[in-house]
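cron nightly-structures :: item 1 of 1
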Amino acid sequence: TASQNVLVTGITDLGGNVTTNDGNVTFASATTLSGGPRTIDTGAVGAGNILFSSTLDGGHHLTLTAGSGDITFIGEVGFIAPLGAVTINAANDVTMVDAFTAASLNQAVAGAGTFQNNGVLTATTGGVTINSSLVDINANIVASGTLQAVLVTGTTDLGGNVTTNNGNVTFASATTLSGGARTITTGAAGGGDINFFGTLDGT
């Protein structure tokens, strides 16, 4: 049945996948991924939202598909146990209210809304791809793995610093610096490139 929701209220060990037909999926308390890679899917084109209202941990891959719905992480992600590779296949807005730590982050399908991080976004072994129409960076982005890149495709408000370990940093669209002095670092002796393919502004 279309638009039926899934709501989980208690502290959760998530050892299975969750699928709806355009319905919202909400985890209201601390959630830990277990048992292997996990998928949460509300439909590739529907409007079902995915919401983690508390912390999210667990060293497993996570694939999220929300169609034209939003994906929101209210609590800290990966503080106790960093997530594995996180893939966002479809979403409108993606919002990280707190720090987010995973092996990598790949927004594989372009989002029509805004990607926003309000806490430090850290990829421990892989890269970071933010693929959204609008990008609002309010905290630092770090790709710790050697030669792992950071790619930002949409129109960007850059209110945080970006650091890689010899990986490239690319802003594909118009970028505006905000919130103070900004640094983009690919390593003092490494070969990481820094690319601005759109305009760059900011005082």
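cron nightly-structures :: done
The chain has a mean pLDDT of 96.
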